[in-house]
Amino acid sequence: MADFVGAVDQGTTSTRFMIFDHGGNEVARHQLEHEQILPQAGWVEHNPVEIWERTVSVVRTAMQKAKLQASDLAALGVTNQRETAVVWDRRSGRPYYNAIVWQDTRTDRIASALDRDGRGDVIRRKAGLPPATYFSGGKIQWILDNVDGVREAAERGDAIFGNTDSWLLWNMTGGVEGGNHVTDVTNASRTMLMNLETLDWDDELLGFFGIPRRMLPEIRPSSDPNTYGVARWPGTLGGEVPLTGDLGDQQAATVGQVCFNVGEAKNTYGTGNFMLLNTGTELVRSEHGLLTTVCYKFGDQAPVYALEGSIAVTGSAVQWLRDQLHVINDAAQSETLAAQVPDSGGVYFVPAFSGLFAPYWRSDARGAIVGLSRFNTSAHLARATLESICYQTRDVVEAMAQDSGVTLDVLKVDGGITVNNLCMQIQADVLGVAVSRPVVAETTALGAAYAAGLAVGFWKSTDELRDNWNESQRWQPEWSAGQREEGYGRWKKAVERTLDWVDVD
């Protein structure tokens, strides 16, 4: 019996490969960043070929670090940035265009047109999503409408689409030599094209975007004993390891945080923030700006659904301080700089670089820093950046309570920013509830490994996974109720200042 499970975690800024043992402990990892391509304001792209090359490299290097062979892995899982759309030629394996990233706003006219004529209400009812630039459907339409020859190739069956999970799985299982064109229910639920009740592509929704059905991958469970195929690229895994897990990154983190009971929630802090609340087998329709999505589907079991609050810019706001403003040299410095002051000095930063996602869904919003005076320093701006992450999370928590009636006792957190102790303390203060970080903070890759391992019996049940979860640190709120409400009130005023900045036809 193989002793380990591997997981490819293809994220917005980097790709990593992690190897876990039966206790859910990290054995090895390797990670590489890829280029962020910004052709013009509001456009964000990645090179799919670079992402695939990075994937091959991180798998090979992590396996070498751990001194493991393919036969040491019981299974392999994949998790990915979800709404980032790739369209490629199944004959040559070459993308027709760069991947259009989930943050990209070029499809704002497509989204607003859907809402004007009533099609948006159908999308909300069937797909659980508002028409927004965030999701894949509009990106596919943009490529079909704007890249020469793609629509004709799609009609012939040569041009195929996938989020980055499908792109990787197709390449991992052979590419032009018989690669499997597949995805899972969580990724499919982020396209505006899948019916949440049938878990299949919906012809009416496809018609809204003019997308030929034959472009789309086969939809599978998130944990599938029938496998997505076997890893076939030479010199790395050699066709020996079954691919049995596939989850969008935020659903993977929910599995990694073992949120298997109704009412359990996690918040992942990455490029953006993503909070998911398990609603069980019941489809809960949001009336307060959240998304209804598939949380996971294990084998032939009924799908489990979730409410999600998606926030576009959190960790990438810290990157902005580093890369564009050069206020800090690395992400860790945001904590030491912000800690130089006791508060933000009245400064509020709303990083609406890609408009505002949940619970506002305003593509006309743009970033704003308000409340500045001569008193303020770079330390205040750094602290306001950390506070913006926490206030945006509170916006989602408030909406979640209204939709579900669930009041959180504790918020499970994971992702890169959770190593910032000051930010996590501010999060507890802003919410007024305890914040808990697990020992394994990279729960996205862990969740993909869990899904893959469950499918092959490496783990027998979700109870085993619960036994693996251990708390690393907990933060208790220290602000008074008055401080909390005064700060949140000013945050809401700052959000108002960002609205109606861009004209959307």
Automatic annotation (TrEMBL):
Cellular component aspect of the GO annotation: cytosol
Key word Manganese present: no
Binding site for sn-glycerol 3-phosphate: 12, 82-83, 134, 249
EC number(s) stated in the UniProt entry for this protein: 2.7.1.30
Similarity comment: family membership: Belongs to the FGGY kinase family.
GO molecular function: ATP binding; glycerol kinase activity
Domain Carbohydrate kinase FGGY C-terminal span(s) in chain numbering: 266-455
Name under which the protein is recorded: Glycerol kinase
Family matches, as Pfam families: FGGY_C (PF02782), FGGY_N (PF00370)
Lineage of source species: Bacteria, Bacillati, Actinomycetota, Actinomycetes, Micromonosporales
Annotated metabolic or biological route of this protein: Polyol metabolism; glycerol degradation via glycerol kinase pathway; sn-glycerol 3-phosphate from glycerol: step 1/1
